[in-house]
Amino acid sequence: MSMKQVLAVVGAGLVQNGLAQSVKSCGGAGDHLKNAVVTLTPDPPVAGQDITVSITGDLDATVETGTINLDLAVQAMGVINNKVQLGAPFTFKPSPFVAGHLDLKVGPTQLLKAPGTTTITGTVKAVNAANEPVFCMDLNLKSVSDVNMLTLSNETAKAAGGVTSCSQPTDHVKNFKLDTTGGKIDVTGQLDEDLTTFSINVDAVMKKLFISLPLKLDIPVTTSPGLPKGDFELSLGPMTGGLSPDPQVSLSGTVKMNDQASEEVFCLNVDQVIEKDIIV
């Protein structure tokens, strides 16, 4: 074997094993999102540094109704080792995913600060109402952290309260209505401003058995096209599939959305029990 061939083999090995993308498009020619490019910065993630996920492409049709399909393996905290296979039907009116160029950026934000190694591998796919593929994203994320945020919980078991609204009259979503019956989440209201830049703020606690992990996340989002001012309708579920084995995980806290001026758009109280078959 010539030196040139040796270098070629070594180079191919480095690309496959050392320089493989942590997040990338796995879509095909038949997907409705054409020219899809998915990037993670930095890639691979670096302990202590923020990450940013960018998705660009060209939608050849508006997607208003469809299903998000998750097929993932998740390991975290040394006590979570689960397969996640879920189908989540959705409806978003008016849709932010209109025909034309799409430019979506999530971050910069930090990965979940969980002690030890956190890995997420698998795919996230979307199909439209006709079950035609819209996009596919392949995940091969690995994060190592030496932080010790775990605490022992002495709370007794309690019934989950589900998802409820904590929105205020001053929020930018007016007449906010939330319905969680029938295994679905249905939200309606009126957005009093156009949104192209906003942030999702999570202040919650995740518990598994007697272990608690605080979750404090600030996730900036920039999207073009954005969320238009006016009436909207969002529906998610009912879910299909499940998690295995039973994760026995609960999540409680608040999830808020703020606009570019740090003014609240909406607020949700979350008190969920995540089970192997459904999320209640």
Characteristic terms for this protein:
disordered N terminus, 1 helix, nine-stranded antiparallel sheet, 280 residues
Kindly describe this structure.
Strand 11 and strand 12 form a beta hairpin. The chain contains 1 helix and 18 strands. The chain is mainly β and 280 residues long. The chain has one domain. The model is unreliable at 1-19 and 156-160 (pLDDT under 50). Strands 1, 4, 5, 7, 8, 11, 12, 15 and 16 form a 9-stranded antiparallel β-sheet that branches.
Number of DSSP helices?
A: 1
Q: Please estimate the helix content.
A: under 10%
Total count of strands: 18
Write the H/E string, N to C: HEEEEEEEEEEEEEEEEEE
Q: Which structural class is indicated by helix and strand composition? A: mainly beta
How many domains make up the 3D coordinates? 1
**Spatial shape:** globular
Uncertain stretches:
1-19, 156-160
Radius of gyration: 20 Å
Mean pLDDT: 81
Strand content: over 45%
The biggest sheet, with number of strands, parallel, antiparallel or mixed sense and barrel status, is: 9 strands, antiparallel
Q: How far apart are the first and last residues' alpha carbons, in Å? A: 60 Å
